[in-house]
């Protein structure tokens, strides 16, 4: 269900569309929206599409409604029952109106600084690159959390043969042209979407730029959470799903590269 201000075509398209996938159970969505608006507002006009999995009980749906009414009407609520992060991003991209598209997690804990996020956006707006991807500083992370993340980074880099240091960071901006190519190529399945996206964008010949950011107050999960949840339960499924997506990409790449290859300016 969508609560868009204006569902008809108008001449007032925003410069930037940011999609925020969110679980209904995540608290403090208002602080995340404050952060994004502070990052976007000095750069360009914008819309923020919060796509919520409201099959999970929680406060986010009502919090976003109140935020839109009381704080900023450029924030829109979209409800996608049962959708994961990748499905939420696809849903948002299908409705994006900006000339630059982006996405960021709804969890406050990951956030970079306002000046860094604004600079990332300005790189795409200025034409310096076609996609900019956050590259997370791990200095505040626990050793086990850092190890877990870097293992999955290595697996992703090995399976997809890309050279970006941090493929999984949930903060990226891209041109609308890149976004449409992503919509036409990616499988949009689970965490591997972040890795798959970068592989397709590079294969299409677009310019990708990593941008180092301070990754505040994240990586604080306990050793038990990391080992049991991350490695025992999630790890094998992540590797299998990543391989499955890579096989799909291998079969589709010739046809899709012809369709979406970047045309030099």
Summarize the structure.
46% of the residues lie in helices and 17% in strands.
Outline the structure in words.
Helices cover 46% and strands 17% of the residues. It has an eight-stranded mixed β-sheet, sandwiched between helices. The chain has one domain: Alpha-Beta Complex (Spore Coat Polysaccharide Biosynthesis Protein SpsA, Chain A), CATH 3.90.550. It has helices at 29-40, 60-70, 85-94, 114-125, 143-160, 176-185, 192-203, 223-260; strands spanning 2-3, 16-23, 46-53, 75-79, 100-104, 131-136, 171-175, 208-213. α2 links the parallel β3 (46-53) and β4 (75-79). It comes from Plantactinospora soyae.
Name the descriptors:
about 260 residues; alpha/beta; Spore Coat Polysaccharide Biosynthesis Protein SpsA, Chain A; 8 helices
Topology:
Layout: E1 2-3, E2 16-23, H1 29-40, E3 46-53, H2 60-70, E4 75-79, H3 85-94, E5 100-104, H4 114-125, E6 131-136, H5 143-160, E7 171-175, H6 176-185, H7 192-203, E8 208-213, H8 223-260
Parallel strand pairs: 2-3, 2-5, 3-4, 6-8
Antiparallel strand pairs: 1-4, 5-7, 6-7
């Amino acid at each position: 269900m969508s609560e868009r201000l204006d569902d008809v075509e108008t001449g007032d398209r925003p410069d930037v569309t940011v999609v925020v996938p969110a679980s209904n159970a995540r608290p403090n969505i208002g602080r995340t929206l404050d952060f994004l608006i502070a990052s976007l507002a000095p750069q360009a006009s914008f819309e923020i599409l919060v796509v919520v999995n409201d099959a999970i009980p929680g406060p986010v749906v009502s919090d976003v409604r109140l935020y839109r009414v009381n704080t900023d009407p450029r924030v829109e609520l979209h409800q996608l029952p049962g959708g994961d992060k990748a499905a939420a991003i696809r849903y948002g991209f299908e409705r994006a109106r900006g000339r630059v598209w982006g996405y960021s997690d709804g969890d406050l804990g990951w956030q970079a600084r306002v000046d860094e996020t604004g600079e990332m956006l300005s790189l795409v707006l200025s034409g310096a690159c076609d996609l900019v991807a956050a590259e997370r500083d791990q200095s505040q992370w626990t050793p086990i959390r850092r190890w877990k993340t870097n293992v999955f980074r290595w697996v992703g880099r090995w399976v997809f043969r890309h050279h970006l240091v941090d493929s999984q960071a949930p903060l990226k901006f891209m041109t609308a042209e890149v976004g449409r190519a992503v919509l036409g190529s990616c499988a949009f399945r689970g965490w591997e979407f972040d890795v798959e996206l970068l592989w397709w964008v590079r294969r299409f010949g677009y310019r990708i730029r990593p941008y180092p950011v301070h990754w505040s107050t994240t990586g604080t999960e306990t050793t038990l959470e990391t080992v049991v949840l991350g490695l025992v339960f999630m790890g094998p499924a992540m590797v299998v799903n990543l391989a499955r997506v890579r096989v799909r990409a291998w079969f589709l790449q010739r046809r899709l590269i012809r369709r979406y290859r970047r045309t030099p300016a």
